[in-house]
Amino acid sequence: MDDLRPLQPNHDFAFAFDIDGVLLRSANALPGAHKALSYLQSHKIPFILLTNGGGRPEEERVEELSKKLNLPLDVNMFIQSHTPFAEMAKDYQERTVLVIGGHGNSCRRVAQKYGFKNVITTGDIVTADPSIWPFNQQFSYYYRRHARPITRPIMAENIRARSKIDAIFVFNDPRDWALDTQIILDLLLSKQGLLGTRSDKNNHPDLPNRGFQQDGQPPLFFSNPDLFWAAAYDLPRLGQGGFREALEGVWAAVTGGPQVGVELQKTIIGKPYQETYEFAEKRLRAHRQTLAGGGKIGPLKKVYMVGDNPESDIRGGNEYKSPHGSEWPSILVKSGVFNGGEPAYQPKKIVDGVLQAVRWGLQESGHEIVPRPQ
Known about the structure:
Blueprint: E1 4-5, E2 13-17, E3 24-25, E4 28-29, H1 33-42, E5 47-50, H2 58-69, E6 78-79, E7 96-100, H3 106-114, E8 118-120, H4 122-128, H5 140-146, E9 167-170, H6 177-189, E10 220-222, E11 228-229, E12 237-238, H7 240-255, E13 267-268, H8 274-291, E14 302-307, H9 310-319, E15 330-333, E16 349-351, H10 354-364, E17 368-369
Parallel strand pairs: 2-5, 2-14, 5-6, 7-8, 7-9, 9-10, 10-13, 14-15, 15-16
Antiparallel strand pairs: 1-17, 3-4, 11-12
């Protein structure tokens, strides 16, 4: 990497890196990760870390990543799958949201840090009323350990006195799919987000979506669509996308599903979706301006999206339509989810690892190989 010399001080290109399977594998840095990123930093070539992972505050993850990669990183160049939820907090500040996923209270802490004031979890609900999921015994100690009191009762006799759920946010991979599926299902079939109720509009053939999710039920948000992710095990493991597919299956079994014209109405962010890439580009442009010292800089022409998942990283880079006209060429590495064969979405380049990805991007962007200065 030392034989590559930038041709201009204000670079018109940048990089976006996935983390799991690109920079890290489980808790360990992958070969070449430190060298690739340190080279970019030393030459003030802008980059961001764009992951479909999450479940913890951004500051904690950045501190941990800095140690694992042996490299100083800034929270402003780091985007988790749920980071864009922070911009939605203002719409739900005084309302009650159900947060799904993550270990213990980690996602509750993230949501509160974003500005959501009234946050409850499925653990809070089942602790307040264990009868809501009769097979909770195996996890009851875990629930009680992390549960918080709910200010208004879940199942008050007076329906108007019950806690109303105004939105459901799946922040991270759920830990107890059964409990989470049951409570989400109850809320999507409820009247106006009140647990223990059923909407009279459900299965009404004259209403849109046969009346399902047409009676003030809470909107449902997922922070990423990944079916698989690269963990410590040799083969990819199911991720949040796996949970969503399971929930979709239960929803179809209960409502009749697409065969009768019913869909699960939801919003999915994260890679490969346009909204997440727009959010990432906004962060990247701000970081690039900071590196330039706040002075006038030319347009950002290319952003190399480096990832290991063809369904999210590569598809996202290929399909993203930048409002600023930037191209997002995709580079697929073979160190994570993808390790060979024909990818579902074709990248511009396939390489072994992140160091090779950075080298190819630098050369493709106009760097030339020159003798290393003596």
